[in-house]
Amino acid sequence: MNGGNGPLSYANNSSYQKAAVDCTKVMVNEAIVDEFDIKQLSSSTPYRIADLGCSIGPNTFIAVQNIIEAVERKYQSNGLESNIPEFQVFFNDHASNDFNTLFSSLPLDRRYFGVGVPGTFHARLFPKASLHFVYSSYALHWLSKLPKELLDTNSPTWNKGRIHYVGAPNNVFEAYSTQFRKDMHAFLDARAEEVAPYGLMALLFAVVPNGTIPSESFIYLLYERLGIALMDMANMVSLIPNTK
Amino acid sequence: MNGGNGPLSYANNSSYQKAAVDCTKVMVNEAIVDEFDIKQLSSSTPYRIADLGCSIGPNTFIAVQNIIEAVERKYQSNGLESNIPEFQVFFNDHASNDFNTLFSSLPLDRRYFGVGVPGTFHARLFPKASLHFVYSSYALHWLSKLPKELLDTNSPTWNKGRIHYVGAPNNVFEAYSTQFRKDMHAFLDARAEEVAPYGLMALLFAVVPNGTIPSESFIYLLYERLGIALMDMANMVSLIPNTK
């Protein structure tokens, strides 16, 4: 993912992800209306929100603002406006994320204490029972690593020239699937410790229903085209030395 | 302050500040032995440490480790080793600090959850009563801004060619002094809200005793020489166009 805020940066090329954030606004609001129990939050405790895999903005700021406004509305609608808690927001991504750009673009008029958390969300990142709302958008479908057997040219699981599993032998699919299960387990195990009692979690990520036919799936087609383009580029690079 | 980790970076040019961190180790330990009351920390609460004006390491990691080890020793010496809390460490500096370098150099074997906090410590940065140890080393003596009257060439407070107040008229000294008082008030007002009951604070910054004679003070002499060097450089730059 490209850092900074130039023309090729993620910050300026994430309108697709922004549309997804907008779609979840209503769901996030309904979850807070239906499930957030004001009585569970002691008056001296801040409401702590984490965006896991937040990238560098601006989508994370919009998502967080949606959550905060929903919580505020809940207090207001219960006649408890004066009890609205302070908010602390933890923006998480890999240590290699461009936190410098994230921090320099934090909204000036924010009503929360903003914090950056470097590290993988496939492990513990926060103290026990300290988070009230965990949010993750367009991050959880990325694997923590490529299953190494896919790179072994002598293995029946070698994923020759592909960046995903469509059109590959079944054991390629199984290798990806096993890695995804491990990653999800690690993610959920860590959150199980970190989320406070009665805390909420909203996870948004790309999926395909079981049994989806590849030719009918946007995601399958997208990665197939992308894989072909990457292979073309790789072949061009390897040809150049031969033409000299 | 230079970011990154190159030959001119702060990370590789802060051995003087490192010596100061080493000097405070004993004092920090004594403060925790004498003043930290284990009973005040609920078993479900992490011990939260903030380094305000942390820069980009490595000194901040050493300072934080000293605090954590002192807290752990306190539990051990009370036979409460199994009750040692989780630690969460908030590394704070201006949003323009190089947090990318800070995060990429976090110790791999750390026993705490590390977090970056962008923003000035002359205002609120944390939720109410959420911090158990506030630490600040070689940061608090920097003013939040230059008093603007020092730049007004028509003012009797114009600080002609100096970067500090030694050798200047008394109202230059007063302007600096007033700004420092304002900054310290703002700092302490914010911390008064953020530090938990029975929390501790260790502040290390450059001072001179009242009545110090400038010619006998290392700090005075240092800034005088630095001011002269900066003026020489500024004069060189302004001369160059005239020689073309």
From TrEMBL, chains A, B:
Residue ranges the record marks as coiled coil: none
Superkingdom, taxonomy of origin = Eukaryota
**Stored Gene3D superfamilies:** Vaccinia Virus protein VP39
Q: What sections of the protein cross the membrane?
A: none
Q: Which GO terms describe its molecular function?
A: methyltransferase activity
Q: Which InterPro entries match?
A: MeTrfase_7, SAM-dependent_MTases_sf
Protein name per UniProt: S-adenosylmethionine-dependent methyltransferase
Supply the source organism for this entry: Aquilegia coerulea
